[in-house]
Amino acid sequence: MLQATFPCTKTHVSPFFFILFTLLLLHPLSSLSTEPPQYSATTTCSREMVTRCKKIWEILCCTSTTTTPQIHSRSLISCGEFGSKEMSEALPLKSALQLFDADFFSNSKVKELPKDAKEFNIPVFRANRKMVASENGGLHNPSVLVFNSEWGMNEVPHKNKKFSYPSPSDINVPEKEEDMAFMSVIELGYLIKTKKITSQKLTEIFLHRLKRYNHTLEAVVTCTEDVAYTQAKEADKLLDQGVYLGPLHGIPYGLKDIISVPQYKTTWGSKTFQNQVLDMEAWVYKRLKSAGAVLIAKLVTGSLAYDDIWFGGRTRNPWNIEEFSTGSSAGPAASTSAGMVPFAIGSETAGSMTYPAARCGVTAIRPTFGTVGRTGVMSISESLDKLGPFCRNAMDCAVILDAIRGRDPDDPSSKEISLEDPFLIDITKLTVGYLEDAEMEVVDVLAAKGVNMVPFKLNYTVDSVQGILNFTMDVDMLSHFDEWQRSGQDDVYEAQDQWPLELRRARIIPAVDYLQAQRARGKLIREIRDSFTVDAFVGNVTDWEKVCMGNLVGMPVIIVPTGFKNITKPPPGGTRRRTTITTGIYAPPQHDHIALALAMAYQSVTDHHKQRPPIDDLGPNDTVPNHPSVNIPPRQWHIHV
Ligand SMILES: *[C@@H]1O[C@H](CO)[C@@H](O)[C@H](O)[C@H]1NC(C)=O
Ligand SMILES: *[C@@H]1O[C@H](CO)[C@@H](O)[C@H](O)[C@H]1NC(C)=O
Ligand SMILES: *[C@@H]1O[C@H](CO)[C@@H](O)[C@H](O)[C@H]1NC(C)=O
Ligand SMILES: *[C@@H]1O[C@H](CO)[C@@H](O)[C@H](O)[C@H]1NC(C)=O
Ligand SMILES: *[C@@H]1O[C@H](CO)[C@@H](O)[C@H](O)[C@H]1NC(C)=O
Ligand SMILES: *[C@@H]1O[C@H](CO)[C@@H](O)[C@H](O)[C@H]1NC(C)=O
């Protein structure tokens, strides 16, 4: 037994600890708690430490009297570190981690864990347990994680009926390039279809804008010029041959850089992966390619899809370049807002579309969970990750969603969701709720359009919604980045207070409490379903509780710009910089068409979505700053994911 590594030493039992150990064995426990430690003054070890040592020794040795412990620590704790109070609290955890086969954290990292566990993990364990696990056995409160034994091999992919897009008429190529850059996809598609402009010309215009404004916005990871001109030429050639692929034929766009495209880097926004090339076509890229769209850029994702900080910088908000864009779909939101792409594909795990779309003032739809296949996309959480479009307006969102939805055979969560045609919805037959925090202009406009608008409140009893979201997202993320954490690559992560901290906390969430969270999530979903007594509702889209709730339920929401405010503390002489105002239109899962139809109705008589942000024309006395002055805290405003 004495051959075993003693957990208070770096390697084997040192002479000092041999003495200490002898003391521990000789002293009755009671004397340890009352008398000062009796050892030489060459160390800083406290009485507390002695108690801890004893406890750990018991865990490692004394509890197994017949066998030598097999557990060895890679980085055991030295006596000096032992002295601190946090460390003495962390010590039992340090040894417990050996039992999880997770003894790889440095001492300083372990030191943070007890505080974090108490503050973030334990309250959620307790809340969920009380809610769903106070009764034993039975199939009540089933987990939302559902096992499907189907092998899904001989599946016949069935095609959704396409939406009936309106066709514009009498549109001409504007004189100014900028006017072209802010046209909608439907308008640009018309110019291409009628051969008033070529796809190659459009590609050139938008590539030029990407380069021009990236300097200020830090929103572009890679311009994919080669593939862009190849695809644009092909689109023009097909049209010359009389083949028209639909409204996306020849339209340039960008992809969030968590989406793989062969031959280009897929950096995930992260220093660790900034040279990664994944030689695969993501499913969503394939869909857009077959619709004739032209990939011109890989746009910024916050590092590992968290917030707006990435290895090349921090993406800014085109409406107020002193601010950051929030994230993590930072590039898609900022680039669409600034007219650098007609549309872009981003993703959301929790807030990654809603936050940047709201801040950058663009229309975006976070569709029903499972609508868009995720093969070839970096995974955070299988049950939360969703892809969706950032656009100039809701009509474009409908067009893009129509092109990218459908079952992806390699993504078991994706589904053929049969949405109704949003262009054929009679909104006067709808009853739409509005929450206390809804933007009233939207409510008034929809009421004037004949929608039955009623005050509304979501009613649910689950009070650990934000905790359930944290557990689900963080544990799932850690399972996808296990090796990254184990090998210490999290040390070079761009923002140490974000993923690195959260994923260490996730390491000590027991499997049973993770599953209780999934049962609690099931309860939340049933309560939301039962209280969703309207066809849709209007409400705040950046309120963190709603972001968590909406993502846990998997319900769609469309983010709609509804106006602007003056910035606080404008420079003397004024500025064109503005704060955007936004609201969300939420619909039940698989009713994305309702949210789209309502947003289209609102935008048909308002023009907030048509305003253009000031990027290099800020006002007489306002200049582009070198460093944004507003520091946006992570996730409360964001994420990630
Ligand atoms: C965009 O700007 C960032 C920040 O300066 C830079 O790291 C990145 O390389 C630029 N992207 C392109 C495509 O030039
Ligand atoms: C809210 O939900 C609770 C529990 O499900 C129910 O008892 C209550 O009647 C509901 N209240 C409203 C206003 O629907
Ligand atoms: C969820 O995690 C975030 C980020 O660490 C933290 O700020 C927040 O307080 C957590 N929420 C709960 C309910 O634990
Ligand atoms: C929406 O929620 C965010 C975050 O809580 C808050 O800052 C904002 O003021 C809210 N908007 C409205 C209209 O209540
Ligand atoms: C611009 O700033 C200068 C110096 O601060 C000031 O003299 C001038 O009046 C300002 N211009 C306007 C239009 O406010
Ligand atoms: C906003 O700022 C402009 C000048 O930049 C000013 O004319 C206008 O009155 C301001 N609006 C409000 C509501 O303060």
Automatic annotation (TrEMBL):
Keyword annotations: Signal
Region span, Disordered: 609-633
Signal peptide stretch: 1-31
Domain Amidase, chain residue ranges per copy: 202-478
Pfam families, alphabetized: Amidase
GO molecular function, one term: glutaminyl-tRNA synthase (glutamine-hydrolyzing) activity
Domain of life: Eukaryota
PANTHER family: AMIDASE FAMILY PROTEIN, TRANSAMIDASE
Stated name of the protein: Amidase domain-containing protein
Organism: Aquilegia coerulea (Rocky mountain columbine)
